[in-house]
Design goal:
The protein has about 350 residues and is an alpha/beta fold. It has two domains: about 1-80, CRISPR-associated endonuclease Cas1, N-terminal domain (Ribosomal Protein L15, Chain: K, domain 2); about 90-330, Four Helix Bundle (Hemerythrin (Met), subunit A), CATH 1.20.120. Helix content is about 45%, strand content about 15%. A five-stranded mixed beta sheet has the order 1-2-6-8-9, sandwiched between helices. The longest helix has 26 residues, at about 100-125.
Length: about 350
């Protein structure tokens, strides 16, 4: 069990969580492994077959602490929470904005494409001299194309469908050269293209796991400011899908998730032996690998970067919360536009 910025992650399958007084207690094999006061928690996330006692569920819901159930590979299964607290005026403004979301979508797409381009350019600066000429040429061409897409999106004449098309084009270009950012010699850790449900190789399994963690944090951030995580702008509404949380994470994915995945692979903290292939070809991380990723996720969330709009240093782990506040301020009319977060 790990506590990261007021969120507890429980990864040991067969563990049991119970309430003892005003504390959450984690046990494995009947022996107490950890104890955390409830007042220090904002969320609990469990992976795989974890027993959670009914008294603890009631206590978490009553204290406004969300309990999220994920399968052992990080795929969302269910979420338990108490009464939803939201600002009705803010949510009405959000729902009105959903009818004409172009400007918010434009900001989201600009943030995502700029951060994708920054990740590629960082790799060129760090390792460009060591790359084969054809690999460096491909990266140069994609960064140039992403710059062209940015200029196109920044114009105010693109429709919503065109903005979505630009976002999709940028993603296709970005992932077409993603494998050239992987420097580990393990052939089994090569990039073969994006696969999601299910992930078909170790790199995709790692990305999907990190995206799940980021989506959880984004949803919590939106709920924390009173926004409805289901009513998005870039992602179309779909029953059961937290579309706004997926919107919020788009500009954060390249830096918070993709770069962390590359670091874990290139530093050989994760290898092919840390993953297993199931019937049907689905690839999943083992328990030790999940622990390694969660430890790295904790460390990454503690790192600070200058927020370009606030001009203050902000820990990575609080960036989703800051961006949710920026979005809420825009919807209330306090900001003329939603300012995306740029990594520099």
């Amino acid at each position: 069990m790990k506590k990261l910025l007021n969120t507890v992650y429980v990864t040991s399958e067969g563990a049991a969580l119970r309430k003892d007084g005003e504390n959450l207690v984690a046990e494995v094999g009947g022996a107490e492994r950890s104890r955390v006061p409830l007042h220090m928690l904002s969320a609990v996330v469990v992976f795989g077959a974890i027993h959670v006692s009914p008294p603890l569920m009631v206590a978490l819901a009553g204290a406004g602490i969300t309990l999220t159930f994920l399968d052992r590979n990080g795929r969302f299964q269910a979420r338990l929470e108490g009464p939803v607290a939201g600002n009705i005026l803010l949510r009405r403004a959000q729902y009105r904005a959903c009818d004409r979301p172009e400007e918010i979508v434009r900001s989201i797409v600009i943030g995502k494409v700029a951060n994708q381009r920054a990740v590629l350019m960082r790799s060129l600066r760090d390792y460009g001299a060591e790359q084969a000429p054809e690999d460096r040429g491909a990266l140069d061409r994609v960064t140039d194309r992403l710059a062209h897409i940015l200029r196109r999106v920044e114009r105010a004449d693109e429709t919503l469908d065109q903005l979505r098309g630009s976002e999709g084009e940028a993603a296709q270009l970005y992932f077409s050269v993603f494998g050239q950012l992987i420097r580990a010699p393990d052939e089994a850790m090569r990039w073969t293209g994006r696969s999601r449900r299910p992930p078909l190789d170790p790199v995709n399994a790692l990305l999907s796991f990190l995206y799940t963690l980021l989506a959880h944090d984004c949803r919590s951030a939106l709920e924390g400011v009173g926004l409805d995580p289901a009513a998005g702008f870039l992602h179309r509404d779909r029953p059961g899908r937290p579309s706004l949380a997926l919107d919020l994470m788009e500009e954060l994915r390249p830096v918070l998730a993709d770069r962390l995945a590359l670091s874990l692979i290139n530093r050989r903290q994760l290898r092919a032996r840390d993953f297993e292939t199931r019937d049907g070809g689905a690839v999943m991380m083992g328990e030790e690998a999940r622990r390694t990723v969660l430890t790295a996720w904790q460390e990454r969330k503690r790192e600070e970067r200058l927020h370009p709009f606030l001009e203050e240093k902000v820990p990575f782990g609080l960036v989703p919360h800051v961006q949710a506040q920026m979005l809420a301020r825009h919807l209330r009319g306090d900001l003329d536009a939603y300012p995306p977060w740029f990594w520099k």
